[in-house]
Amino acid sequence: MHSYLPIGEISASVPVLLGLGALVGVLSGLFGVGGGFILTPLLFMIGIPSAIAVGTQGNLIVGSSFSGLLAHLQRKTVDFPMGIALLAGGIGGSFLGVRLFHWLTQLGQIDLVIKLSYVGLLGSIGAMMMIEAVTALRRRRTGGNVTLKRKHHSWIQGLPLRYRFRTSGLYISVIPPILVGMLVGVMAAIMGVGGGFIMVPAMIYLLNMPTKTVIGTSLFQITILAGFTTLMQATTNYTVDFVLAFYLLIGGVVGAQIGTRLGAKLDAETLRVLLAALVLAVSAKIGVELVLNPSESYSIMNM
Hints:
This is Probable membrane transporter protein. Pfam families: TauE (PF01925). InterPro entries: TM_pro_TauE-like, TSUP/Inactive_protease-like. It is a multi-pass membrane protein. It is found in: Cell membrane; Membrane. This protein is mainly α. It has one domain. The chain contains ten helices and four strands; from the N terminus they run E-E-H-H-H-H-H-E-E-H-H-H-H-H. It has a two-stranded antiparallel sheet. It has a two-stranded antiparallel ribbon with strand order 3-4. Helix 2 runs antiparallel to helix 3. The protein is globular, with a radius of gyration of 19 Å.
């Protein structure tokens, strides 16, 4: 069963789109990430134009992240002041990123920039995730301590504009969360990602947030930021295909609920290994496509 995508101007398999949405939803529920860093490259692979994939996937991130957020709201594990600080930087970064996206599109270089960014970023993130996860597995099997120690005193403690984030038990400057949010906002616009795979480690290791509040707070920020970025893409670059978004969203909302339940039951180290392997595989696939000769000498896409 296929459906025509009016903005992408191609037909796509409905079961495949539903399956991709469900996969990203599960990742969102398990790890507190939007999942765009996996979804966007997978959309490339099934023939969705790069600009359309980047512009549209934000709809799914909104749905799957909000679905996971509801579960964390019930557990009261969302630090709203921290989420607002991250969001303030994220909206500013998203605005800058969308303008940069528009400029690169006019130059005709957006596809190359997106794919090179994915190869570099996914390759490095996937490698670090794999090393950490494999090390944790080995320590656990040998009876070693697998608890990750975080520094509680750093240069962040000396920054001005300090605020007490009561849910997370922190008293730190609002500047680092704003800067982290800004980086995530630029990435959301240029690469079509929610940024959770950067933000979650930064919240744990840089901001020293307790793990129990990281995922829910991340989902809060990602939900609103992805919605803002999608609106900007739709009104500035006209790259949001709502038919594609509809099918992805159905799968994503269901997958997020499954992921949230699995996250409380499955082994964390094994899950990190599998996620890292998936990230590295996607990075390698995009990298191979960049160096191979294309099947067509050129293509024309109306934007």
